[in-house]
Amino acid sequence: MGKIILTGDRPTGRLHLGHFVGSLRRRVELQNSGEFDKIFVMIADCQALTDNADNPEKIRQNVLEVTLDYLSAGIDPAKTTIFIQSQVPEIAELALYLMNLVTVSRLQRNPTVKTEIKMRNFEHSLPVGFFCYPVSQAADITAFKATTVPAGEDQAPMIELTREIAARFNNIYGPTLTEPEILLPTNAVCMRLPGTDGKAKMSKSLGNCIYLADTSKEVKKKINSMYTDPEHLTIDSPGHLEGNCPFIYLDAFASDEQVNRFLPDYSGIQALKDHYTRGGLGDGTVKKLLFNVLEETLAPMRERRRQFEQDIPGVYDILRKGCDEAREAAARTLDEVRAAMRINYFDDAELIASQAAKYKG
Predict the structure, then answer these.
(1) Are 187 and 252 in contact (CB under 8 A)?
(2) Are residues 320 and 173 in the same domain?
(3) Do 299 and 333 have their domain in common?
(4) Residue 126 maps to which CATH number?
(5) Other CB atoms closer than 10 Å to residue 53's CB: what's the count?
(6) Which residue among 62, 125, 235, 284 sits deepest, i.e. has the most Cβ atoms within 10 Å of its Cβ?
């Protein structure tokens, strides 16, 4: 069996810097590494509908937005299969079978599910689809026999549940499904990039995001309003780094070479931090540096996005081809799953022959 990646995003809005450092940047690196036999990137519209069932148009519009973000970030359809979850019905079929292998109490113990239920105020009106989406996610991964899932730390409980479900399936029906491994970001800061307001997580619903498609003017405005150190009242006063957004973002995006190029008086990030903590360095200087660093990442992405926006029918053709490729791969897995579960009735010539002999007069 080869090395296969499955990863993706819910199309509930444009992708932001948290997505980029948490997984998207790494996906591009892995895509170009040549280490993997196949890479699937899924636009998880079915999962997005579990808490947006009353607003399907939101999902419909954002499928294209997310695709453009992927392409602008460097996901290459010649190397990576981009597909839409709902267009691969084999995933839903597999999810139905996997639901029989996990208990309600096991899903209730999932910390990611508990956190998201609370965040969406679903405690007293929990949609069944949302409650079961960890099983759907397990189907997403196992349908493509993924060996590797690049994801943030918050998704670790989901991957562990997938491994449990796959192991139970294999124990009951025989070795069929692959137990995946999570691939976490190598930079610890990238595991959970805070919002511009200092909140623990960058989130579309909180309005504290810098989007990959933001204009240069929008990025500068958001950086200038970033949460810093509330006790750093003057340039001369010592500053604190903990929870200070510009420094957290610099850790995620900046290299020492960039710091030295934009601020020649500093050899790198640590020298900048040392000056800030002892006093004498203003927040404005740090924010200006961050803007310059982010522009080196985002400006080429904006240009690629503009090019793809000139041929939207071509973008949908990329998606259509990706969906066809993904469905072929998932169908092969489902053939094996049905055979293992002995529900491939019309493919089992031995079954038909034995039943015919049984009832022959």
Answers:
(1) yes
(2) yes
(3) no
(4) 3.40.50.620
(5) 12
(6) 62
Residue 170 pLDDT greater than 70, yes or no = yes
**Bridge partners, residue 122, by sequence:** none
- Clarify whether residues 126 and 45 are in a common domain: yes
How many structural domains are present in the chain? Answer: 2
Tokens of 251: 């850790």
Structure tokens at 320: 């259509």
Lowest mean pLDDT among 84-88, 107-111, 137-141, 284-288: 107-111
- My answer on whether 280 and 331 are in the same domain is no
pTM of the complete model beyond 0.85: yes
Tokens, residue 361: 């007069």
* % of the chain with per-residue pLDDT over 90: 75
- 244-283 as b/e, with b when 16 or more CB fall inside 10 Å? bbbbbbbbbbbeeebbbebbeebeebeebbebbbeeebeb
Q: Which residues of 138-168 are buried (b: 16+ CB within 10 A; e: fewer)?
A: bbbbbbbbbbbbbbbeebbbbbebbbebbee
User: Domain span at residue 240?
Assistant: 216-308
In a domain, 240, yes or no: yes
Q: Cβ–Cβ contacts within 10 Å for residue 188, how many?
A: 11
Q: What's the one-letter identity of residue 158?
A: M
Tokens of 198: 């200092």
Mean pLDDT is lowest, of 35-49, 86-100, 270-284, 346-360, for 346-360
Task: Determine contact, residues 345/351, Cβ cutoff 8 Å.
Answer: yes
The verdict on 153 and 43 lying in the same domain is yes
Q: Are residues 188 and 287 in the same domain?
A: no
Contact 151, 184 (CB under 8 A): yes
Query: What's the CA gap between 260 and 126, in Å, rounded?
Result: 51
